[in-house]
Amino acid sequence: MEAVPSRARAYVVCVALGALACLLPVLAPVTVPPLVPVPVTHASWWAVCLLAAVYTGCKQLARRSFAGPFYPVLLAAAFLLPPSVAALVPLPGALLAAAGRRPEALRRIWRAAQLALAVWVAAGVHGELGGPAAVADPDLPYALVPAGAAVVAFCGVLTALDGGVRVLAAASPARPGRRGLFARSLAPTAVHGLAGLMMAVLWRSPYGPVAALLVLLPMCVSWWAYAQYHRERAAHQATIRALVQAVDIKDGYTRGHSERVGQASMMIARELGMDDERVEVLRFAGILHDVGKLGVPTRLLRKDGPLTPEERRVIELHPEYGHEMVRGISFLGEARSAILHHHERLDGSGYPYGLRGGQIPECARVVAVADAFDAMTSTRSYRRARPVGTAVRELERCAGTQFDPRMVTALVRALDRHGWHPAVTAEDGTPPPPPGNGAPRVPAKHRAPRAPAGSAGGREEAHG
């Protein structure tokens, strides 16, 4: 069973008690006198049962066929019903859905309480702004105002509660990536809210609930397409992970290097203002830049002693090997040219083709800087990592001859903004032991550099 910290458990219990308090006006007839009486008619109970059944069915379908949350039914309930009644709708679906991880009961209770609170708040905001009357008329232009406010409240409650439990479960402050969760969640939730408003308007119209449920058909189609996109993306990630793991197994002395080069490439791309799709491609390029080492004989990568000129030429073929390996993977896009040209240098002294300046693809110039930076700041078997400041000064010194100054400047700005927190190269965080004769083994990729002495990264950048 996965351990859940006691503070996180206490937080879940508090949220569950809060959700129960929201339901008290409905449960009051069989418990205690209600503080705020809620009129619950036969029609309301019928609507609760139907919407709850539809939401439960959507949750079960999501587990088998689709992906991601599906909120139109919950938001339709917030637009149609009083707050305490609407909060009942998500309970069966949340409590019956598979939790995925243990402890299952705690996770189900958490999800049910979180959704009940979010629907309760959304219905309350919608009612305070006169939304039910606008839906019943219907006054569609005006109905968008309370519906929009309800969607913002719904999304805000979900992200706030989710952020709280994540922080308590991880025992750490909120990460920067989580701070933007509300902004990223608001757009898809707004689309679901619009579908929920259409359901509510049709529900109150002469066409009735059957017409309202038809709104879900195009939503389900779009949901399915969205799920297919994520499945395809997951397959891409699995392909890349398999290639990187194969490289790491073959040359364990640089384990983790590929992921860090991908991270640094992404930082540079974002600083340059590239769009999200291209940033992702640059991340792929950084992760796969050394995949061509799979085509290099293992004895050369692990050879003790200096390389012969012939052996060095074989190792220098790894960018071309890598390009051939990934040439048929269409989703990599321009990452393929980055893999081929990441060892080219602005002054034409690089390989495999000795390209100069603007002849080198932009993506390759990004990866070249990221590769050199990580090589200098990573601990290797024969030397400790250089400080980030030292590596940056070396990159700046070689900018204009070896590296594109624009890429170097972008990396420096990104480091100033976000810092650099790389993972250790070796699996256990310690340098690998020396070979039998006691002399530290220097991987072949780091010996006999082609670059002139003093170039950024030194021997680290010879073939890496």
UniProtKB/TrEMBL annotation:
Superkingdom per UniProt: Bacteria
Pfam family, one: HD_5
Cited InterPro entries: Cyclic_di-GMP/3'3'-cGAMP_PDE (IPR052020), HD/PDEase_dom (IPR003607), HD_domain (IPR006674), HD_GYP_dom (IPR037522), HDIG_dom (IPR006675)
Transmembrane segments: 12-32, 70-97, 109-127, 147-169, 181-203, 209-227
Residues covered by region (Disordered): 422-464
Keyword annotations from UniProtKB, A to Z: Membrane, Transmembrane, Transmembrane helix
Gene3D superfamilies to which the protein is assigned, alphabetical: Hypothetical protein af1432 (1.10.3210.10)
Cross-referenced PROSITE patterns: HD, HD_GYP, PROKAR_LIPOPROTEIN
Domain HD residues, every copy: 254-376
Residue ranges of every copy of the HD-GYP domain listed in the record: 232-427
Tagged with keyword Transmembrane: yes
Protein name: Metal-dependent phosphohydrolase
